[in-house]
Amino acid sequence: MFDIGFWELILIAVVALLVVGPERLPKLARVTGLWLGRASAQFHAIKAEIAAELRAEELSQTMKKDADTTAKPAPSSYDTRATTKTDQTSEPPHG
């Protein structure tokens, strides 16, 4: 996430030791660790939510495209008009 090397961490630790003091440094480190952990968790949650929204949008677009292609009538080589049957029943002869 951050491009901080070993010597930069040592420098930050020395400055923190001078500014905060040796008594409060462990508590500061613990609180800083908690805040960084929470920030990291929030970052990953937001990243996962954005990825889920993108997948949902892609699925929606795919479904819309499929619905558009299936709604178009396919060209056919046969006549699809309905045919009517004639009444082929005959009455028995009287007599």
UniProtKB/TrEMBL annotation:
GO CC, any one term: membrane
Compartments, record wording: Membrane
InterPro entries, sorted: TatA/B/E, TatB
GO MF: protein transmembrane transporter activity
Region (Disordered) location: 61-95
Key words of the record: Cell membrane, Membrane, Protein transport, Translocation, Transmembrane, Transmembrane helix, Transport
Biased composition (Polar residues): 77-95
Mode of membrane association: Single-pass membrane protein
A biological process from GO: protein transport by the Tat complex
Residue intervals passing through the bilayer: 6-22
Classification via PANTHER family: SEC-INDEPENDENT PROTEIN TRANSLOCASE PROTEIN TATA, CHLOROPLASTIC
Protein name: Twin-arginine translocation protein TatB
Originating organism: Methylophaga frappieri (strain ATCC BAA-2434 / DSM 25690 / JAM7)
